[in-house]
């Protein structure tokens, strides 16, 4: 294990403990505490092997602290989503490395999401409601919402930066750059907003129709739905008697039973359907606009080569910050990710600037 992976273990231990601290359901909180201890044990074992002081180790990185802050603001389901994505990536990397070095894959390399489920299902006191709640967390968008925010800003910045540089190349930064930049910002943000609205609205309408069909089945044949739910739990490895008892408990509350059935059978999380399409569209518009406005700002106050240079500098800074933010999900090196994002963004802008320059000279 290298120092990077060791730090990941330390960060995971810290974040699982934070999840436990903020989880109201004691059974699920205990699952998170057990996961925290497992991760801490991994880190301590490596420290003993390498003769590293334990006290020097147990400090979460800036990434873990940032995720904890995000959890405090937006809720810890976001943190769980990011944490699970990270562990899946690490698991895949370990398996790939073993296959490359022709080392047998034992099956223990699988991600900690499976460990979480194994711990939860091993609890004798677990109920159908608790398992349902955990399934909701497991399938929640988690870090995807934050990731969408980062990528939305990136789309706005890169697309409008490239557009502005193309116009600046054709006009030497004199005419029409500000107008083109503002038009690109507005058009791109509206397009993103409309696309998000259509996506959310169509998904809601589709899922609502499927949920209504499931409710009809529940009302006309509750015994069959109870058996179907029990079979789903049995397929997950839960003992038959416990699975049937869990299904029976859930079926006592029709609304709860409907929620669980649509989640288990259809893979639909009813909570996600409560989001407003208008809110999603507005959120998308704002995120795109925040990124798109950066390269435009200098042309509001100056023009020519001076404005071009300032725009490039501001856009490069924005690209670096976006690349750094992406490491919250990937766990990669901040400098590598940041400068890689800058390189790609500047390359795209350079191409459009060159094309604009050629067009401008041709017209002249």
UniProtKB/TrEMBL annotation:
Biological process annotations from GO: intracellular manganese ion homeostasis
Membrane topology: Multi-pass membrane protein
Compartments it resides in: Endomembrane system
One annotated Gene Ontology cellular component of this protein: endomembrane system
Alphabetized UniProt keyword annotations: Membrane, Transmembrane, Transmembrane helix
Transmembrane stretches, start-end: 280-301, 307-330, 342-363
Record carries keyword Transmembrane: yes
UniProt feature coiled coil, ranges: none
InterPro entries hit by this protein: Ccc1_fam (IPR008217), Ferritin-like_SF (IPR009078)
A GO molecular-function annotation: manganese ion transmembrane transporter activity
Pfam families: VIT1
Major place of residence: membrane
Keyword Membrane: yes
Protein known as: VIT1/CCC1 transporter family protein
Organism (species): Candidatus Opimibacter skivensis
Upper lineage: Bacteria, Pseudomonadati, Bacteroidota, Saprospiria, Saprospirales
């Amino acid at each position: 294990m290298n120092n990077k992976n060791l730090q990941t273990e330390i960060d995971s231990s810290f974040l699982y403990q934070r999840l436990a601290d903020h989880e109201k359901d004691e059974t699920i909180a205990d699952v998170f505490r057990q996961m925290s201890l497992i991760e801490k044990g991994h880190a301590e074992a490596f420290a003993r092997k390498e003769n590293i002081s334990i006290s020097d180790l147990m400090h979460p990185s800036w990434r873990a602290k940032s995720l904890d802050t995000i959890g405090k603001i937006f809720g810890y389901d976001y943190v769980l989503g990011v944490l699970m994505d990270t562990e899946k990536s690490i698991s895949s990397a370990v398996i790939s490395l073993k296959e490359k070095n022709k080392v047998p894959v034992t099956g223990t390399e699988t991600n900690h999401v499976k460990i979480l489920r194994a711990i939860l299902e091993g609890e004798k006191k677990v109920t159908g409601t608790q398992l349902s709640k955990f399934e909701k967390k497991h399938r929640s968008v988690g870090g995807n919402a934050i990731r969408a925010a980062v990528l939305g800003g990136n789309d706005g910045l890169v697309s409008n930066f490239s557009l502005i540089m193309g116009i600046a190349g054709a006009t030497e930064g004199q005419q029409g750059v500000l107008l083109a930049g503002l038009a690109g910002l507005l058009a791109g943000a509206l397009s993103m907003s409309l696309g998000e609205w259509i996506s959310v609205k169509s998904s809601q309408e589709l899922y609502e129709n499927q949920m209504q069909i499931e409710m009809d089945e529940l009302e006309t044949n509750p015994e069959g739905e109870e058996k179907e739910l029990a079979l789903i739990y049995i397929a997950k490895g839960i003992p038959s008697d416990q699975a049937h008892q869990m299904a029976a408990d859930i079926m006592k509350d029709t609304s709860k039973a409907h929620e669980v059935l649509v989640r288990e059978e259809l893979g639909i999380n009813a909570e996600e359907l409560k989001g407003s399409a208008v809110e999603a569209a507005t959120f998308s518009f704002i995120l795109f606009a925040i990124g798109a406005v950066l390269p435009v700002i200098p042309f509001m106050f100056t023009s020519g080569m001076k404005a071009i240079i300032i725009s490039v500098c501001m856009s490069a800074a924005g690209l670096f910050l976006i690349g750094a933010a992406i490491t919250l999900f990937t766990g990669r090196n901040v400098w590598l990710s940041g400068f890689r994002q800058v390189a790609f963004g500047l390359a795209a802008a350079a191409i459009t600037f060159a094309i604009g320059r050629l067009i401008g000279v041709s017209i002249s």
